[in-house]
Amino acid sequence: MVLLLFGPPGSGKGTQSRLITNWLGIPAISTGDMLRAEIQAGTPLGNAARSIMASGGLVGDDLVNETLAHRVSQPDCNAGFLLDGYPRTVEQAEFLDRLLCLRGFPKPIVLHLDVPMDALVGRMSSRRQCPACKRIYNLLHQPPLQTGICDDDGNALITRKDDREDVVRERLRTYDALTRPVLAHYQDNNYYQIRGDRSPSYIFEEITGILEPLIAKHSAANDR
Ligand code: ADP
Questions:
Q1: Which of 114, 107, 95 is nearest to 3 (CA)?
Q2: What pLDDT, in 10s, does the model give residues 154-183?
Q3: How far apart are CA 96 and CA 208, in angstroms?
Q4: Has 164 been annotated as catalytic?
Q5: Is 134 a catalytic residue?
Q6: What's the CATH code of the domain at 88?
Q7: Would residue 171 show up in a list of annotated catalytic residues for this protein?
Q8: Which end of the chain has the smaller Cβ count within 10 Å, N or C?
Q9: Is 13 one of the catalytic residues?
Q10: Within a domain: 40
């Protein structure tokens, strides 16, 4: 099973991707986390991505596609995977179609977390992330147990550089111009719209309600 978590920056994709991974045991692949790791490691890709990400734009399709293709060719992806933050352009969606077809994967199931734009800026400025395990917190709704410290591994939480308000606004503009059109690519097939302006546990319940019948259908087909 290939899942795509789709939605604007700050719509809760990272939070849901962690819950889904724990539930289904498939890896969650975040192109944003992968690019940040490349920046930290100082690789040529990281150096190319750094200023683009800091300004709220999108890293070039070829670079991201290549990185993604390499990641999904790892053995832990053989039984399926979840994509968070990819595809973000129509070109990336077309590349993913070809990649999935080539590797014998089914068409993706698209979960679209829809959140009104005006709720997103506030959400992102109160967002914190663990630099080690990438878990996401929100100071307003999902604070860590101990201020500034990750519940899971005790590392000090950070604010991402691109969560500054001016950069957030640019990321939202980029989403509207380049990423929202990707929805038209998927709307006819396995597409589910979910209201993302509710609590993470409520949203997760809705996601399990969508996926359980699909998983049951899939395993019944495999038993035949
Ligand atoms: P968010 O979804 O909250 O914007 P991400 O961590 O997914 O956060 O992405 C952060 C930044 O990384 C994006 O603004 C963009 O510059 C870059 N990025 C992530 N995924 C992609 C992608 N698929 N294509 C191009 N750039 C990407």
A1: 107
A2: 999 999 888 888 899 999 999 999 999 999
A3: 24
A4: no
A5: no
A6: 3.40.50.300
A7: yes
A8: C
A9: yes
A10: no
Q: Which of 4, 15, 29, 31 for a ligand 1 pocket mutation test, highest count of atoms within 8 Å of Cβ?
A: 31
| Residue 98: its H or E element | helix 90-102
Radius of gyration from C-alpha coordinates of the chain:
17
Which residues lie below 8 Å from residue 4, measured CB to CB, with a gap of 6+?
A: 82, 83, 86, 87, 108, 109, 110, 111, 186
Q: What is the pLDDT of residue 224?
A: 64
Whole-number Å distance, alpha carbon 220 to ligand 1 midpoint, is 36
Q: Is residue 44 part of a domain?
A: no
Distance (angstroms) between ligand 1 centre and the Cα of 81 equals 18
128 part of a folded domain: yes
**pTM listed for this prediction:** 0.89
Report if residue 65 sits inside a domain: no
Q: Which structure tokens are listed for 147?
A: 């201020």
Residues listed for the chain: 224
Q: Which two tokens stand for residue 172?
A: 């939202």
For residue 53, the ligand 1 atom closest to its alpha carbon is 16
Q: Which domain holds residue 129?
A: 2-26+79-223
